Amino acid sequence: MSATVVVLVGLSVGTYLLKAAGPLLLGGRRLPPMVDALSNRIPAALLAALVVVSTIADGGDVVVDARFVGVIVAGVALRLRAPFVVVVVAAVAATAAVRAIA
Amino acid sequence: MAPERARIIRQALSVGFAVAPFGVVFGVACADAGLSWLDAAGFSTLTFAGSSQFAAVDVLGDGGTATAAIGAGLLLNLRSLAFGVILAPALDGPWWKRAAMSQLVIDESTAVATAQDDLRWRRYGFLAGGLAVFVLWNLCTLLGVALASVGDDFVREWGLDAAAPAAFLALLWPRLVGPAGSDGRRIAAAGALIAAVTIPFTPPGVPILAATLGVLAVGRPR
User: Fold this and answer.
1) pLDDT digits (tens, 9 = 90+) for B4-17
2) Phi and psi of A62, rounded to 5°?
């Protein structure tokens, strides 16, 4: 077996176990009220972190570039109650425009 | 019921198209590392975890050991353990259904799922987001392998790397607005701050996990 196949199988099995542990062991079960209340709060923290990481992380470095402008434009579009797709397209167009000018 | 479903499908497709360019980049990266199209497709279907795939192929391309490649990939994906626990109440049904759905546990499916308040719509959002990304990610991986010679500059040039953060912000937005959003604003601010501060000091993937501690910004749950 080539190294690539070993990595493919090893990584896929390992990743799957990480993904499936929660759904297989706890799936469909009501969590205790305290954990339940906590898990209702997690999305805000999680989504905010995904925004930050996909905006300013570049490998292990913090980089503020044209993406930052794109996300601000997305925020303005959301403020104006633009539909989801328009928000994403506006952010992409703004980021491309900044890079084209710079 | 119908408008709810249409709204979730729009969110799922937007998120799918937001990650699609990175699928192309992954295909290009596989070709650069000397992998065949079958290896590339294998990673995108069987591993199906963007950041882990990039890390493993990166290590392989640099001539690293299999252990190092697997270790790097798994470390990046520790967060899916937490995602699985968060999603568990919404993922009910017989064990084999839960086993099949588990393959779709990724950032984007978790994001679309947790953006819904109702448990039933959470499951719908999870499946819609997961399937949209799965299909587009795999098609784009193959496209990337085929187009390897064009390189991956197009993502930056066309501003496509801003699509994912914009989509995540749009999913977050309803939790921030209005009087009901005061807890959401504090939690999101704390989560964003934790993520920003930990990026330089931790391996990629860990800041997202660490940011969940932002829930403590509003005190103990009652």
Assistant:
1) 999 999 999 999 99
2) -95, 120
Map tokens 């898990």 to a residue.
A39
Contacts of B165 in chain A (CB under 8 A): 50-51, 54-55, 67, 70-71, 74, 91
SS3 at position A60: coil
B116 exposed, middle or buried (CB, 10 Å; 0-12, 13-18, 19+)? Answer: buried
What distances in angstroms separate CA B91 from CA B193, B199, B216, one per listed residue? 30, 31, 26
ipTM of the complex: 0.90
Residue B162 in contact with residue A70, Cβ under 8 Å? yes
Name every chain B residue with its beta carbon within 8 A of the beta carbon of A76.
none
Q: Residue A9 and residue A94: Cα distance in Å, rounded?
A: 41
Partner residue opposite A92 with nearest CB, options B77, B84, B163: B163
